[in-house]
Write a sequence for this structure.
């Protein structure tokens, strides 16, 4: 009888050790999966944030370039217009001088 009690106690201890090792394995596996998922989520969030900032800067650059091109074209137009007016005045003065 005492031998059976010792066998049962030994079997119970062994069972508890095996269960403890298995539960530890399961917990470690879950933790690794959670860690990988967390790192991946952080990576995606960082990518989204960087991409968003890139798009904002790119659009701002496009707008700035557009305004600059417009400014340059307008100044060129005004310069050509003023030169044209000067040439027209000179030609008009020559025509008036020739007709007299």
């Amino acid at each position: 009888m005492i031998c059976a009690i010792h066998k049962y106690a030994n079997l119970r201890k062994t069972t508890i050790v095996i269960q403890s090792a298995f539960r530890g394995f399961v917990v470690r596996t879950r933790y690794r999966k959670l860690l990988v998922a967390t790192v991946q989520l952080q990576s995606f969030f960082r990518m989204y944030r960087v991409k968003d900032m890139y798009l904002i800067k790119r659009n701002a650059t496009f707008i700035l370039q557009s305004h600059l091109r417009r400014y340059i074209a307008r100044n060129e137009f005004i310069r050509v217009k003023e030169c044209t007016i000067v040439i027209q005045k000179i030609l008009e003065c020559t025509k008036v001088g020739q007709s007299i």
